[in-house]
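Troubleshooting log. The previous run stalled partway through. Resubmitting the same two chains, unchanged.
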Amino acid sequence: MARSEFRIIADLFAPLARTPAALGLKDDVALIAPRKGHELVLTTDAIVAGVDFFANDPPDTIARKALRVNLSDLAAKGAEPFGYLLTLALPKTVTQSWLKAFARGLAQDQRTFRIALLGGDLSGTPGPLTVSVTAFGHVPKGKAILRRGARPGDLVFVSGTIGDSGAGLAALLAKKRSPFIARYRVPEPRTRLGPKLRGLATAALDVSDGLIADLAHIADQSQVHIAVEAARVPRGSKLSPAEAATAGDDYEIAFTAPRARRAKVLAAAKAARTPVTEIGFVMPGRGIALLDSAGKPIPLKRTGYRHF
Amino acid sequence: MARSEFRIIADLFAPLARTPAALGLKDDVALIAPRKGHELVLTTDAIVAGVDFFANDPPDTIARKALRVNLSDLAAKGAEPFGYLLTLALPKTVTQSWLKAFARGLAQDQRTFRIALLGGDLSGTPGPLTVSVTAFGHVPKGKAILRRGARPGDLVFVSGTIGDSGAGLAALLAKKRSPFIARYRVPEPRTRLGPKLRGLATAALDVSDGLIADLAHIADQSQVHIAVEAARVPRGSKLSPAEAATAGDDYEIAFTAPRARRAKVLAAAKAARTPVTEIGFVMPGRGIALLDSAGKPIPLKRTGYRHF
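Second attempt completed without errors. Output:
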């Protein structure tokens, strides 16, 4: 890289930071004046080449995945995103045209999700490309949807389809073509649905490690048992329910809501133009089970992606 | 690493997150209710093994450096820190006892600076250990000290000493002992001084890339010329003024203030128990110069650290 950090920032990233909070990327900091009556929701996720994406993936899809996995977290909490910090650790092999395409991907998703770059950090690394994003959203005070609110008697819902991203990853690893590769590379955060679930959902999170593994977090934090009916798990690919529910990288919203709110939940989904499927129920107890059509737990080799 | 991400978080990091905002690290997000009448100041900096620190540095000093370089940014803006996000990319070679010592370093500095862990992300990496911190502070609305406020006639000040960290790095590279190695490994962010400069300093930043390189940012953003008198640059090591002023990693605050406020600035420094030295002046024009005792610019091979 012949060009300096400052030129890269001025040429490629400052145009992405057209918000007063970013101070034109000309200071070391960003200044956020939070919206009245709101709390700030923040989340951070890093994606690493060779772990979370392929180093030869198109640069714009890498940028968009890094953004979207974070926007997905905010959406699941009922928050509306407004900005993000970007930390790039760049290997020497990264070219100017790669960076341009990367910035183009950011610009595209900034328009889609109405967010702005607030600041960040650029450094060289002898290791793999790492893209770290911290995303910020607003939620009315006390209205964030956490993991800990599920109650026995609640129903379990999930948006979209489960396992498609996993099918895309399997195709990439097998060097085959598949319509699901796009789903793996560029997830679809449910930013329209999330805010409409405020006041309806009792607990929610986004499915990143796998439907079963993530619902286990809700069961754990809410101190309840969650049962998922395998046949009801919405799938676009040919993965079995057990495969789909443990694949990960879905970036759908899984949530619980009282049975009495079922109609309201489905109306909210319709208003958000987002498919939502009822997949299970909450009971007293602990832990999670994926049930076959006879109501018996299906033994699982693993519940989802393990980071170590 | 035999233990999973979740155990590491529960055992080592959850005890660092004893603030309601962190939700016990049991959700995907943190929830910040900003202080009334204040803005949030945020900054993010990553440190990479082999670039910003040595992989065999003591783990607690790596943790503390990652925190402190960010706290230094907040202090220079006049902000009071309250929390941080931590993103760790861990190579497989990292052991449980290394992580324990790392967490101990965080705990120590959390007490020193009265901050809490708000959340973060843990992932494996085939590359070097990378520690990324995003730090959050409060500043009364409109009172953040930016880079763009320096005016002709202002004086230039710097806290502490310059070049000591560079001398420490040189000793480490030469495999020699030096009292300055500690300074390189664990910088001293000027968190007491920063908030006291609100309403006094017209522009400020922390010295990370080198005194001259960083003051050039103030000159650039404020559209002024800055002259630094070499003989006045406060030094603890045997580096020459030109070496010290281009060494970097100092994490002192460099700032400008009107001549009429000189006495107030020195009183604020005393109240903060932080040495502050007058080192130069601001003039109409552009750019920066390091002046010898005859008032002539000293030619510099470089102005500071280049990231690429």
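Takeaways: Chain B has a mean pLDDT of 93. The radius of gyration of chain B is 20 Å.
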